[in-house]
Design brief:
Phosphorylase Kinase, domain 1, 5-stranded antiparallel β-sheet, Transferase(Phosphotransferase), domain 1, Phosphatase 2c, domain 1, 7-stranded mixed β-sheet, alpha+beta, 665 residues, globular
């Protein structure tokens, strides 16, 4: 707990407290409560306890005791994740230094002390405050001049901190006084004691020219940070942070008592409330913990429809993990359906295990890595699959994908939001990554003329030693990877539908948003999720899509009642018969004007009864299969021994692929 003595609580103090309380991330120290005791002019900050203390300890001969390269890399990765989150929600720390990086009991690095942090309308330039107190050895040069301040000031400070962790001293030559040190900073006189990949990273972060300085996204992909690609660091997109006046007003809990005895009683009561909230939140692994009034997933409805093409390599699943958490997934195989069938019973098991000790983001990273390691080691190198997995909670939607399976969030009105990233040649970042690996694009935008997607499960012929054997060449890095793109979106009361679709549906409509708008139009028109899903696939097929078509629609709106659907009453939709000459349907107009779709989706009550599917007693729940025990670790840092790989292979082979079925949430 931190205590501040203050004569009055200004608006600035309340705003800073509100900002800090809204920052929820595993690599930031959590501020649980702010308590104002006006009778003693004291402000109490109740903060997360990090038992290992600061990242760097004071040295005897040097300012700090250096740490190992691996410990330095691990802390740097954690700090980069924290900065990625801060900058994505428009917060600049501005005082990053070793003393403001602490370690919890698990060794996870967390940023703290947001006293001089700044919220901006975007991560663009803001004017420096003349009252800003800085530490010269760690502050970027522009903080002392008349130049605009951007999020890149944190990157400079990170570079100085990494240097101190490696050598025991900051890169700035420390003088006897802060003023003399400041002269060194402004002149750009640095003493960088590092070479190789670490030296390259430090020179990029400590670049005096802001326009040339390395930003967080580039640092996350640097060879030193990723250990030459052995430990990739996935990017995460955060959406939905906002700070309202109501948040500012209730940021500080003010005690109303005036006498000492009553104040002590009120203070004990306030701390008891904080401890109660903290204990209740200990079981919550959410990255964003603020509630939005969502309903339990038992009240969500689900529609699933498939129209297999010539290959029948698509599968979709939905699984309820808890009363407030469900997982939606879609898999699109290529070269065969072996990888898809393997993913359906390995990925959910790995994800469920990883969620027991990590956040949704870290769990998705670990699950994708473990599953891909198993698949590459057990499946032919020419078989693979794209996939998208969505963890839906009452408070947040966390989406991870590889390849071209799409996830779209549809609100009651307005434009849909695509939550996934397409990994193919049209993605400029992916195009450069594949080319830098030593592979090339050919045959209509395919990796080495073979694969249309550049991220996928399996496809062992493009990974590791199998790639060298298959292509008779040594790649600088794997051309095809299973590192997912991840997005975290804060839930909103206006969230209506989550739509998961394979690329065949997207190809039929021309884009993810057009397909989603058509689904929303059909839901409003037909008033039934199943009919809307089937109508959408019929339309995609009529538009000329010849690929497998799979669609998963989850309705998140209030006022719904769970509908039990026995598995045996449902069958994948058959491809429709050849259409007879007909008038061009309403959906053939490609404009999908928002004006037509601006009307909100109607509130849904009890779902319509279905005469063709009379109520039946649900089948008994199958016994949970025994899954391999997972060890914690960051994405990409997975090393399976022979015994572990053999056990995992045997377990995987013993699991019969589940039949395609619809799960009722």
């Amino acid at each position: 707990m931190t205590i501040f003595n203050c004569l009055r609580l200004s608006l600035t103090v309340r705003t800073q407290a509100a900002i800090t309380k809204h920052l929820k991330h595993r690599n930031l120290v959590t501020l649980y409560e702010v308590i104002d005791d006006p009778s003693h002019h004291t402000l109490y900050l109740v903060l997360e306890y990090c038992e290992r203390g600061p990242l760097l300890k004071a040295g005897k001969e040097l300012p700090y005791e250096p740490i190992s390269e691996e410990a330095n890399r691990r802390a740097t990765r954690d700090v980069l994740r924290g900065l990625e989150y801060l900058h994505s929600v428009n917060v600049v720390h501005r005082d990053l230094k070793p003393e403001n990086i602490v370690l919890d009991g698990n060794g996870t690095a967390k940023l703290c002390d947001f006293g001089v942090s700044r919220v901006v309308s975007s991560v663009g330039p803001v004017r420096r405050s003349s009252k800003l107190r800085l530490t010269p050895a760690w502050a970027a040069p522009e903080l002392y001049g008349d130049k605009d301040v951007t999020a890149l000031v944190d990157c400079w400070s990170l570079g100085a901190t990494i240097h101190a962790a490696s050598t025991g001293s900051p890169p700035v030559v420390l003088e006897k006084t802060a003023a003399q040190t400041l002269v060194k900073v402004e002149s750009g006189e640095l003493n960088v004691q590092a070479t190789g990949m670490l030296g390259d990273l430090l020179h990029g972060l400590l670049e005096r020219d802001v326009n040339k300085r390395m930003d967080v996204s580039k640092a996350m992909g640097h060879a030193w940070v990723t250990d030459s690609g052995k430990q990739p660091l996935p990017r995460t997109t955060y959406v939905g942070f906002s700070l309202t006046q109501a948040d500012v007003d209730r940021a500080i809990n003010t005690l109303e008592s005036s006498d000492d005895e009553a104040t002590t009683t009120d203070l004990d009561s306030a701390f008891a409330d904080v401890l109660k909230v903290q204990s209740e939140s200990d079981d919550d692994d959410e990255v964003i913990q603020e509630t939005t009034g969502g309903v339990p997933c038992a009240a969500w409805r689900l529609a699933h429809c498939q129209q297999p093409g010539a290959t029948d390599e698509d599968r979709v699943d939905a699984v309820t993990l808890t009363d407030s958490r469900a997982v939606l997934a879609a898999y699109d195989g290529h070269g065969g359906k072996e990888v898809v069938d393997s993913l359906r019973h390995t990925l959910p098991a790995f994800l469920s295990s990883a969620l027991s000790f990590g956040t949704p983001t870290s769990a998705l990273e670990s699950a994708f890595s473990y599953a891909d390691n198993i698949i590459v080691g057990t499946q032919p190198g020419s078989v693979g699959a794209a996939a998208a997995v969505v963890i839906v909670d009452n408070d947040a939607i966390t989406c991870a994908n590889v390849g071209d399976v799409a996830v779209v969030l549809v609100s009651s009105s307005g434009a849909p939001v695509v939550l996934t990233t397409k990994h193919c040649k049209s993605n400029d970042e992916e195009r450069k990554r594949v080319e830098s690996s030593g592979a090339h694009w050919a045959n209509g935008g395919r990796v080495n003329g073979v694969l249309r997607v550049s991220r996928a499960f399996g496809d062992g012929d493009f990974k590791g030693r199998k790639a060298v054997k298959a292509w008779k060449t040594q790649f600088a890095s794997d051309p095809v990877i299973a590192m997912p793109s991840i997005s975290v979106r804060k839930r909103s009361p206006s969230d209506a539908l989550i739509i998961v679709m394979t690329d065949g549906v997207v190809d039929g409509f021309g884009s993810e948003c057009k397909a989603a708008l058509y689904v929303r139009r059909q839901v409003r028109k037909l008033g039934d999720l199943d009919k809307a899903a089937k109508a959408t696939l019929d339309e995609a097929r009529a538009r000329g899509s010849k690929d497998d078509l799979s669609l998963l629609v989850c309705d998140l709106r209030d006022g719904l009642v769970a509908e039990e659907v026995p598995a045996k009453t449902w069958r994948p939709a058959r491809p429709p018969p050849a259409p007879s000459p007909r008038e061009a349907p309403e959906a053939y107009d490609d404009d999908f004007a928002f004006e037509d779709d601006a009307a909100p989706l109607p509130a849904r009550g009890v779902p319509e009864s279905k005469a063709e599917a009379p109520p039946q007693a649900p089948p008994p729940a199958p016994a949970a299969p025994t899954t391999p025990k997972l060890a914690g670790g960051s994405f990409g840092a997975v090393s399976l021994g022979k015994a572990e790989r053999a056990a995992a292979r045997a377990w995987s082979a013993s699991q019969s692929p589940p039949a395609p079925e619809r799960f009722a949430l």
